[in-house]
Amino acid sequence: MSLRRLLSGGFALVEVLLALAVLGIGLLGAGVALVGNLQASREVLLVLRAADLTADLGETLAVRGRPVDAAAAVARWHGRVAAELPAGSTADLAQALLNGTAAPPLALANARLAWPAGGASTAIALLVADPAAEGAP
Length: 137
Description:
Layout: H1 3-8, H2 13-61, H3 70-84, E1 90-98, E2 106-117, E3 120-129
Antiparallel strand pairs: 1-2, 2-3
Helix pairs in contact: 2-3
């Protein structure tokens, strides 16, 4: 074999470094995409948890056939919100009165949960019946 043939076989160091740089950029992009997906998944789980907490309050207050201590139920709900959602979360229960045409007025509460998420605020709201109101379901 000639010396020229031995020197021309294989890859040059520059080609290897270029291939490693391309591979590194690709892996970095995949890592960034993975972190973005994990953050989006966490946000979806928080929305689902907030919806579940709000629905639980609505179901607790709408129970028929047994007395419900609404103040205690709301206090427990506030405690669960503080324990299960991120720090800085707020839970508001604003009263609203809706008048039906053929039925007596139905008192409702607008349960609103909000929590910080990536510099913005995310919120969910649900109407729940007030069992103390006349004509409540």
